[in-house]
Amino acid sequence: MHHNNPYQNDLVNQIFSDYSIDKTRLPSSGLNKVGVPSFVAEWILDKIAPGRGDLSNAEHDRVNSLVMKAFPRKDDKERIKYKVYQGEEYQLIAKLKVRIPLEKATDEIQKPLASIPILNLRECDIDSDILEKYPLLLGRGLWGKITLNYSVNEQGKYNINICNFDPFQSSEVDLRYYARCRDEFTFEEWRDLMFCSMGLNPEDSGYNNDAKIWVFSRLLPLVESNYHVMELAPKGTGKSFFYENVNSKVMVVSGGKITAPRLFFNGRTGEIGLLGTYDVTVLDEVQSLTFDNPDEMIGPLKTYLANGRYNRAGFADISSDCSLVLLANIELDAYQRPKNEDNLIKNLPKFFSETALLDRFAGIIPGWKIPKFQSKMTAYQIGLKTDFFGDVLLSLRKDNRFYHYAKSHTNFISKVSIRDENAILKSASGFLKILYPSLNLTTEEYLLNCLKPARELRQNIHGLLYNLDDEFKQYERDIIVDVM
């Protein structure tokens, strides 16, 4: 069907040399299976086993011995402590986070405490110059190579100390360079490069043009700040895999209970919650989500979704540009359409049916239009390295030219609310960033690849509001937009 323009491996390699990688390397390495996210794994592979194709036996040995040495498992904690207390310097690759405990009513200055979540080590000492050099360690944390030794405090008590840290973070992204690179590709070539960089095979027959656009809509919360969206899909479409692997500024929380302190602010420990810490927070398996106290959650959540700020009693306002993504499973009928097409959120927890809350989401991604994931759909071409790709997407947030383009080329024909308008312009701006980062495009291309899908995302919300609440009957059932 589309083999008349095969994937351009050599072009990708030539234009993005240092930032590209053969996507077969990662699945062949087995690093994802031991819990190493792609943005770290590809970085390591490029360092210790650069090349193309499946890993050779020698490369496998190299990767395995690194994994055995440097990637601790949960039950390695005591063994590592023992080695360190024996006087060994121990190196590992993991995520490191630092917090400064709340001021207690004492004169002593609070010492920063470092934690290594994978080992459940929560109160390590850390050399202060490391913090000065990498302030991002505070709160969210960074992945990198951590060197441990021990320190002895005044009371003669041993403690684990972090004496060295070498982060994995690609340097500042040059968006002008990235936009110039885009102009070397045709639309199809670039679209397939983006798709491959997400880890998916653009040449798989299951992914038609339509499906590709809906897969790209998963990137909108990364490229647009405060972009709140839901994806409803049957099980098995790989909804959360991308978010779990793309960047350390994206956090996925799966099902179960979620509390206000975890989401917003923990008054007891002084830790800022997920929405104030990450660039994107993803709540997975929302259909099985319970809130400890829904009323305590919905108020601050509505405020946050509306204006990017929230407060907890007695503490200063926290403003954040974190995007909130909700992923939920829904049932499909025999024709692969949602069973409750006129009420897509019928099976979600009751608080989602509050229209004031729904109205604050930019859209619903129609996950039922994305094929179920099978292993043959894994990318095997040359794509962008995940750490570079994730950093590019997140740094596009700050660029306002795309929103201005959307605003000046979009004509709202039916009467729409200000929220409809903003949501559609933000989605269209996001598609522009993903597909046309150099803003070289015709209005026809804008209509087809950016505005139409942006309208459909919002129409899925608007249709719900229209059916659930008479207040929305002042607008027509269908949003109609065109280019100008």
UniProtKB/TrEMBL annotation:
Domain BREX system Lon protease-like BrxL N-terminal, chain residue ranges per copy: 14-150
InterPro entries, sorted: BrxL-like, BrxL_N
Protein name: BREX system Lon protease-like protein BrxL
Gene expressing this chain: brxL
